[in-house]
Structures are given as C-alpha cells and as structure tokens.
Amino acid sequence: MTTTSGNARRGIIEPWLGSGWPIDLFEAKTFFEKKGVFFCSRSECGIGNRRILRDPWQLNCGHRVCKECYDKLGALPEAQQLCEACTKELFDEGHLNLDRKLRLESGHDFLLNKDGMSYDAAPPSTSQQPSLADEVPTRVPFKIDFSIAMKDKAVDREISRLLVNCPYGCDTPAKLTLRTLERHMEECLERWVPCEKCAEVIKYLGIGEHRTKCCPFRIVECPNKCGVAGLRAKDLAKKKVQVVKHLNEGKRMDQHLKSIMTKLHTTTTQSSSGPATVISQSQISDLQKRLLTLENQSDRANRMLMDKVHHMTPEMARGLLENVQLAQRNRQDLNDLNSLFKTVAQDVHKLTSYEGAFCALTEKISKTENETAELLSRLETLSNIRVAEIEDQKTLLNQLQMTSYNGHLLWKITDVQKHRDEAATRHSIYSHPFYTETYGYKMCARVFVNGDGSGKNTHISLFFVVMKGEYDALQTWPFQKKVTMKLRNVTENRPDIVEMFRPEPSSFSFQRPKNEMNIASGCPQFADQAHVFNPDNGFVVDDTMYIEIMVNNESTAGLNSPQHVYDNED
Questions:
Q1: What does the pLDDT read at residue 170?
Q2: Which InterPro entries does the record cross-reference, listed alphabetically (predicted)?
Q3: If both were cysteines, with which of 78, 122, 433, 462 could 526 make a disulfide (CB 3.0 to 4.6 Å apart)?
C-alpha cells in the first residue's frame, strides 16, 4: 500500500498550489535553453520565482506576473511597489533579459524620467546609440502603475495550449494541456485521494484495499465470532484484554443459560398446574442482594470455624469439619441459585424487548389491515361504479337493438302485476323510442296499467307521445300521420283490442316539440281491466302483455280525429 503525508503529499495532490505553474510540470520539448534563459521567456512570472505564468497580468513596464503575485504587489507599501524583473535587469551586472534586449534592438524601450515615471523612448540613431554597459548604471528600479496594468489574455491562451506531464506520473496516451489538466487529474487512475474515515492519502487504485484491510477505522467482527458488531480495528487492538474477558464471559454465560433453561423448564412443568407467578426485575434484584449477604456471612463463619478447629478434640473437629463441608455445599448451591437469578433477569429483559417488538409488529399489522380495508373499500366503490356503467351500457345497447325505424313498435311489458300494485301512485310506463324512418319523427308509447283520467281503476289507459328528435327541423309540422294502437291477444284465433286515430293539427300534442316530450294523446279507456286481466281471455300470459303501435307514413292531412282521443296533461 502506497501512502504519503505532510508537504510531500500536498505537493503531489495539488501541484498547482501557489503562484505560477511549476516548470517541471511541462514537457521538455515545450522549452529549450538559449543563453541561460528560456526562449519562451515571456511565459515566466516576472517576480523571479522561475514558474510559468498563471492568470497573467502585464505591468506598465511590459513584464508579466501571475495574478496572485500582482495582488501581493498591490498590498505592499507604495515605496516597495517596484517591478522585480526590472530591478534584476538594471542591477544584475549589466545582463539584460532576452525580452528586454529584443525591445532595445527593435528600437523601443521603456525609460524613466527624473520622477520615476516611464515613457516610450524613440530609437536612437546608430551614431548616438549608447552601449548596454553605459545604459545600465543610469537606470533606477521601475515603479508599477496599477492604473494601466491589464490582464494578458493572449499569453494566457498560449500557456493554456502548452503540453504538460501528468503530475501523478501516469502513462496516459492522450496529449495533456493546461486546459485539460484539471479534468484529467480528477479522473487519473494514479491520483491520490484521502480516505473518508482516517484521512490518510492513498492512491486511487489502492483505496479499496485500504478501506477493507488497512484503515484503522474500518468495522471488523470479533475474531472468535461472538456476534458483537460495531468494533473498529484500532479499538480491537487496544482492548484485547477486554475482548478476552468478554469471550470468557460469553462462554460461561452460554453454559449458565443452558443450565438455567433446563431448570426453568423443570420449574415451569412443575408449576403448570398451579397459579401463574410473575417475577419482576426489582424482586430479582432483592433476591440477588440477599444471596450476596448470605455468601459474605458464610465466608466469615467458615473462617471462624477453621481457626477453632485446631483447639478442638478430634471428635469435635470432625463434627465441625462436617458442618463446614455442609456450609460449603450450601454456598455452592447459593452460587448456583445466584446464577439462576441472573439468567432469569436476563430472560426477563429479553422478554421485555420481545414484548416491545411484538407491540410494534402488532401496530404495524393493524396499520396494514386498515390500509387493506381502505383499499378494499375503494376497490368496491370502483367496482360498483363499473357495474353501474356496464348496466347503463347494456340498457343503451338494448334500446338501440329494440329501436325501430319503420314506424312500428312492439312493446313487451313484463311484471304486469307489479305495475298494477305501483299504479296506486299514478305510476305510468314509457316504452323505448321508435322512429317513422331513419331520420324521421321520434315517438314513444305511455301506458297506465291501472288507468288514468276517466279510465282510472276501470280501464287500461294507452297514449301516444311525440318526442323531440335530432331531425325535427327536417320534418313537416304539425304531425299528421295516422296512429294505430293494439293490445295483442297471444291466444290463437282471439281478436286484439285495436284503436286508431288521426292527429288533430291544432293540438299542442302534435306540434314541433320544445321539450323532451309533447303532451301525451290517446285513449284513457283503451281496454277494460276486468276483460284484460281475466286469465281466460289471453291478453296477459306469464305476467306479460304486448302492446303494438303502428304509424302510417302516408300523410293524413285533412282527416278528422276519431272518437277516442285524449290529451293527457301529466
């Protein structure tokens, strides 16, 4: 396992800390030496720390410094705000920086006046150009003017494209630049990462092994499989003595538990026929204290007896010795009983915890039952809704199947007796709609089984109703078609009860409907009840009767209505 610490670790993990980039971070082919300085010298920080510029700023003298160095210079007293690179050029035995030489050779250089301010000097003539040796002694350190300093974005872009080596030394085949370095360092397999538990810095490839085998804060199990969890590796080494004691106690407690469980089982068997006894924790503690007192008294008595044995006769000594042996056996019994009480106390404690768990489980089961009951109730409600929707669809489908479009209605009425019983509340029955043609008049029949109006309680009343249809705008109004109403006799060769009428054009019953239905018109004394409900006459069979309505599609304009026409105002 490779680890590191201190400043060395800090330098490996974060090589970019501090002002400027370290030169050894870049590939060797990025630079080459020329007269003791870097050819790409304008990439160096002007402070003289021999590091490559990071976030470069250009001063008024032309030198460049890192942003961090720039901020440090601004924090100095005004008298010390001097360009270090200029100072070195002026006072380092007359040797000038290559960039400075190039500026002089190109004919432009920054000079100082008496007040220490810079200006751009014009190129001197060849005959008057002074030598570098004559120029240096006349210079003074260059004072920085922060008001005209600016960030050098062009140099920053050039530096960001320079090739660099991985600080972790990985052999990645990809070409790294400063622009891609930071992302690479976050993904490099050779990078150093801290352990989240012990803060030790480990190579990324070895962090998994460190967490499972080397970290002192990792959680380990007892080596003897005692079942105790949550032990840390470093704590296990420090508490070896306590662990050994814990193991020994575990073994003894196991033996005691087996013995006591046997005794408790025997005691339970013996007392199963008697009343139940509840042992509280306080009672067990009292018994343990009393046992401890008896043990101490027994020890003192044994010591006193042993001291007096030497002063007794042999017969008396033998008798006392037997008493001592008996007392020792009693002491052993007391010890066993004490262990039994301890075990019982532990069992009571366990039962208490089990009781709490059982209560929690019972509460959870009750909650689950309530949730289940609620879900079942919701399902039942949804099921009832679906059943009602299905019934509605069945009713609609039956109506569609029974709807005729030829002006002919055959109406089967079941449960006739039930309708007669309900007729006391003036109950009437409507048939399903029928049409004279596909896009014709919409109509239905209405019957009072126990009669209505002049036929109440004596006759069956049958009426014809004009309904509001989808194509009323295309029809001729008022309604003028002949209507035939029949009560069918289902016995062979028996006549039907038949009534016919022609609509009265002035009646509101045959005008274009404004509501869902017009006022019913028909025969309040259509058929005598005594005659219809006589079983021998064949009109009602199996508690069912049949009514037939026929509308003649030929126009009946100008014909008078028959005698049995009745406008029902209900």
A1: 85
A2: MATH/TRAF_dom, TNF_rcpt-assoc_TRAF_met, TRAF-like, TRAF1-6_MATH_dom, Znf_RING/FYVE/PHD, Znf_RING_CS
A3: 462
